[in-house]
Amino acid sequence: MKTYLLSLMSVVLLFSCSKKTDSKTEIKNEPSPVNLQTKKEPLKTNIFLFATVGEDRLDETRNLAILTNYLNTHISDKSISFEPYVVEDVDTLKAELKSGKIHFYLDSPFTIYKVSNEIPLSVIARRWKKGVAEYHSLIFSLKDSGINSLEDLKGKKVGFENEFSTSSHLLPKSYILQQGLTIIHANRVNVKTTADVIGSVFTGDDENTVLWVQRKLISAGAMNNLAYDKLISDKSNFQIIAKTKDVPRHLIAVTDQVDKKIIKEMQKILFSMENSPEGKDVLLKFEKTKRFDLLKNEVEVRAKILAQLKILEK
Fold first, then answer.
1. Which pLDDT does position 127 carry in this prediction?
2. Dihedral angle, C-alpha 223, 224, 226, 227, nearest 10 °
3. Which CATH architecture has domain 137-244?
4. Which of 30, 80, 224, 310 is the most exposed place for a label (fewest CB within 10 A)?
5. What is the domain partition of the chain in residue ranges?
6. CA distances from 55 to 115, 127, 164, 206 (A)
7. Other Cβ atoms closer than 10 A to 46
8. What is the reported pLDDT for 11?
């Protein structure tokens, strides 16, 4: 009996020691805490939203990311990140600029200066979009339409692209108003226009503007000179009845919340892109941009466009 009890106690003691050993081994095998951040890039503590306005937000975001990715690669402070951000309309843009959510804004000059009337913005760069620094608007008609001047448009209709387009609405419309003529917007092409005013309609895009002129749904159309040359290959049936002055093709503006050191380095990166194979490749992919540079006569440009915007508001 004693022998049996001793054997039983030995088994219990052995089992107990085995559990303790396993427990110690289990503790030793637990991974010790590791600072994983040391193996990663620095956290992005300064995220700047680089915004524009566009109907196709996915496509516009992908396009804008071409530029922001390049900026992120070349900015010296790796805690800074430029992120593409696209809003559907100008009202949303203004609200998010006011709230401080958006920091950089890329757009055509009329829209940028219109927004700058409400939110403090500084223009820091000009973009040579599709290879040009400046462009102008043309108002055109069919040669056999009897519309040979802006005066001839009284009682007729002119087609603009959309409400916020610089070259296909705001610029040509302000030019027409500067000539002492009156424009009344019509919701549809079949709405009658009185004999003393010019009616206007939105076509949706420049291609439609050309098509509507050809089909005589409208008597004249307006768009920039680049679009006119591209969309109308055979100009034998068309004539230009008015031409505006040149304005910058595209601008980058910044809010007053961004540190000047960041702005200066960003300008340096943008302005030097055309000097490297990598930069040239990115510019080409970014809607065939030729370069970024400084708008030297920015004060004068701003004053002229703001004056035109006042005419539009009357």
1. 99
2. -20
3. 3-Layer(aba) Sandwich (3.40)
4. 30
5. 46-132+249-313, 137-244
6. 18, 21, 12, 15
7. 15
8. 43
CA separation for the pair 188, 15 (Å, rounded): 92
Query: Taking a C-beta distance cutoff of 8 angstroms, is the pair 219, 145 a contact?
Result: yes
With b for 16 or more beta-carbon neighbours within 10 A and e for fewer, the 178-188 pattern comes to eeeeebeebee
Domains 46-132+249-313 and 137-244 alike in fold:
yes
Write the secondary structure of the chain as one string of H (helix), E (strand) and C (coil).
CHHHHHHHHHHHHHHHHHHHHHHHHHHHHCCCCCCHHHHCCCCCCEEEEEEEECCCHHHHHHHHHHHHHHHHHHCCCCCEEEEEEEECCHHHHHHHHHCCCCCEEEECHHHHHHHHCCCCEEEEEEECHHHCCEECEEEEEEHHHCCCCCHHHCCCEEEECCCCCHHHHHHHHHHHHHCCCCEEECCCCCCCCCCCCEEEEECCCHHHHHHHHHCCCCCEEEEEHHHHHHHCCCCCCEEEEEECCCEECEEEEEECCCCHHHHHHHHHHHHCHHHCHHHHHHHHHCCCCCCEECCCCHHHHHHHHHHHHHHHHC
Nearest residue to 140 via CA among 131, 132, 149: 149
Whole-model pTM: value is 0.81
pLDDT of residue 45: 60
Q: Does domain 46-132+249-313 have CATH number 3.40.50.2000?
A: no
Give the integer Cα–Cα distance in Å for 137 and 244. Answer: 5
